[in-house]
Amino acid sequence: MTSVDRTHRWRVAFAFVLFTSTAGLYLEAPLVFLTSILGVAYAGYPLFVGPPTVDLELSRTVTDETPDHGDPVTVTVTITNTGPRTLADLRIIDGVPALLTVTDGTPRHTATLRPGTSTSFQYTIAAKHGSHRFNPTTVIAHDISGNTRVETEITADGQTTIREELECTVDLQAFQLRRQARQYAGQTPADAGESGLEFQQIRAYQHGDSMHRIDWKRYARTGELTTVEFREEHRTAVVLCLDARQNAIRAAGSTEPHAVAYCVAAAQQVTSTLEQHSEQVGVAIFGSEFNWRAPSAGREQYAQIEQLLVDHEYDQPISVDGDDITMSSMEQVQRLITQIQGNVEIILFSPLIDGFGKTAVQQLDAHGYAATVISPDVTADETVCEEFVSIERANRVQMLRNRDIPVADWSPEKPLVWPVGHHGGVS
Amino acid sequence: MLIAFVLVTTAFLITGIDAIDPSLLEILHHPQEGIYLVMGFLLIAFFSGSILLTVYLIPEKADVDGYEPEVTPQIPHAGADVEPLTKNPFLGYRITDDEQEAIRTRLRDAVLTMIQRHTGIETDDASTRVRRGDWTENATAAWFLGETPPPRSVRLYARISDGHAFQHGARQTVHEIVAYEQRHESQRGHAP
Amino acid sequence: MGASSAVKQPTYAGSALAVLSAACVTGVLASQPVQVSIAGAEAIGAFLLLGSGLVRRRGHRVFGGGLIFVGCSLICLALGLGLLSPGKLFERIVFFGGTLAMACVVLGVFPLRQSWAGSLIGFGIVIFGCGLVFLAWISDPSSLQLLLGVGLTIVTWDMAEHAIALGNDVGRSARTYSVTVTHFIGSLGIGLGGGTIAIVVDSVQLPAIPIAALALLLGAVLLLLLVLFLGDSEWLSGT
């Protein structure tokens, strides 16, 4: 995308010539009239210089491609003039990823570049959770008179010299699905007989089948060995629910990413973990519109989920009447409940700074879906309002935990430790 | 372009004639030649000046992309929606009756859960406490959520309007909730 | 330092060159030795004012505040002295106009207020221009002096506008010396070229080119250039 503009800044010289010549004539002062020549020279200045030809090569390197949250990352940008002419006035504005702030130096630079020469500059950004993509670098070139302004963007286009991504993944610890927790912890909740394992079919006994699974009654009746097959554990699908509503786009401070970005980062990490185990994953995004992908496995599915999630990372707050959205987001939960079938485990990513997350999980829980809540803490304690909201959030976390719903109260500076249910532990 | 060429040729012609024989120009002379000349030039200057000015005054193409690479976009802080409640009641923020009820319910729920969270008592006990205003020393907050008599400050505000009294009460209650939380948090911190 | 958006104020390098040229124009407008030293004092004040921004950015807030105070006092002093300096009434008016214009330029690039930068500089340049014409009318400056004044006035405007535009694009914290100096050299070169032509025209005492012819010639050149400008890029790129 290149735009060529004429600034017409030397039109001022015309005005000047008109002024001096008129004044010279009127005052009959030949000297004043003479100075018009100077004005004419400046008015014609842009005609002596042609528009700049912008042929540039960019390279961008970072000190750490996979930094941790809060780490400073130094970005070095080098620009080389590969064109045949000198660029007298080059202004470079590097496209810092939208959610990251510059902590030191400036991503803006100017240079005069002769053909073949290059210039480089550095700045430091603070890494935050998420996969961050650099924006195209904006380059503005003026000719020496400043009359022509060529503005263009340099994108990577597969060039390896330009680093485009900054992966700052969430440190996910002790991740396990709820059914695994049940299995390994050796505790069977009271209702496991109903919803935990589902009877599916009976088939002929094969060598290696568990003794406990043999249908002894049937053996006594008919004499043949059959194995009862339960709906297998790994066929439980996982649905990642993302709270990307307008009300969730809240940040703890002006330099912090908002809650939705944190939720997306956590969800991405969970997706890639689930991908390693080839789990069936679906995704439901509550936002200005309801996005739903039914659970399944497969590389394509994971890629699409990734894409859906990333689409919401850069969501911006827009001013819409809040009430409508809350209404429709509850409808979205209803739609989710009608959409999902079978044995599904829900992981909801929500900052819980308003009632939505809690209500949604309670509804899902009431429908018998095992739910886990991952809640990035974006509340602060600087004003009374912030503290009040943080108290409300603590209340919601406690209320969910009281209902045996595991909640991760995750402050983004720390690793995300996967929550375990409080079955039997607390109550 | 053409006009410019005509002008240039005329200029050269005059100069040439003048150089060859100044008297040839006599026919062009007029008693008030100077004034005509000056007036003519002024006229031209005026017109071209005004053309120039209109061109100059056309609003420049505004720098539409407000993209600032250094900073993250402005995102409201968590708690921005409660902010109006904590403002001074006189700052002209009106709350309708429905909203009043919603706010009161929200604050009451927050207090109930908070008390339960910190003391571990049952919901009924907590709501009794709130109704009696036992949870706080702040008479305004106690009145706002419970059934205790309004303190003097509330009565003063109520004399202006009920809306003002409500806002005063809500503000005090929010502050009191935060104070309560901080008290219990610090207690928990001291006695691990 | 914390995260802050780029301070989109006129860049220091360009501003300093603009102030320097403005000081030279004020010096040209001075007709008495005492006025030259007043212009010098104002220039020092102007540079202190500009430097305060740099100092404050490095974190020395108090020192920066002190610089602002001293700079402002010097400029005010120069303004007062410019009005009261000895000399004929007209000379004093011209010189006071010069000091005022310079103060405008300095406040424009300081900047007193971001949105006023362009207007303040424009105002200063207009005063400079009027002052120079007035000077040529009342006294009898040499053609070199006048051309220097006019050329530097245009350079002042150019550098100040460039500093504002550059500041808008890359902010104050970016390194801008090379670009600014390149631009300055370009503008100065054109000024020198134009000035040389003007002096040559002035010195070649052609046997009285009638002023009518000169005016027509000038009008023709102007019209040509105007057509080139307004007749848009296709005319340029088409050839």
Structure description:
The complex is a heterotrimer of chains A (427), B (192) and C (239). Chain A is an alpha/beta fold and 427 residues long. Chain A contains eleven helices and 21 strands. In chain A, the strands form six sheets. In chain A, strands 17-16-15-18-19-20 form a six-stranded mixed β-sheet, with helices on both faces. In chain A, strands 1-10-9-4-6 form a five-stranded antiparallel β-sheet, with no helix packed on it. In chain A, β16 (281-286) and β17 form a beta hairpin. Residues 183-198 and 423-427 of chain A have low confidence and may be disordered. Chain B is mainly alpha-helical and 192 residues long. Chain B has two domains: 2-57; 83-190, no CATH class. Chain B is rod-shaped, with a radius of gyration of 41 Å. Chain C is built from nine helices and no strands. Chain C has helices at residues 12-29, 33-57, 61-84, 89-109, 117-138, 143-170, 177-203, 211-230, 232-238.
Summarize the structure.
Chain A has 427 residues and is α/β, with parallel strands linked by helices. Helices cover 32% and strands 29% of the residues of chain A.
| Multimerization state | heterotrimer
The rounded Rg of chain B comes to 41 Å
Class inferred from helices and paired strands of chain B: mainly alpha
Beta-strand content estimate of chain C: under 5%
Number of domains of chain B: 2
Question: What's the total count of β strands of chain B?
Answer: 0
Largest sheet of chain C: none
Which regions of chain B are unreliable across 5 or more consecutive residues at pLDDT < 50?
A: 61-65
Poorly predicted regions of chain C = 232-239
Radius of gyration of chain C: 20 Å
User: What's the number of domains of chain C?
Assistant: 2
Measured by DSSP, the beta-strand proportion of chain B falls in under 5%
Number of helices of chain C: 9
What distance lies between the first and last C-alpha atoms of chain C, to the nearest angstrom?
52 Å
Helix content of chain C: over 70%
* Overall average residue pLDDT of chain B: 74
State the total count of DSSP E strands of chain C: 0
Chains forming the largest contact: A-C, 61 and 56 residues
What is the percent of helical residues of chain B? 55-70%
**Largest sheet geometry of chain B:** none
Apparent shape of chain C: globular
Pfam families (chain C): DUF7519
Keywords (chain C): Membrane, Transmembrane, Transmembrane helix
InterPro entries (chain C): DUF7519
Transmembrane segments (chain C): 12-30, 36-55, 62-81, 93-112, 119-138, 181-201, 207-230
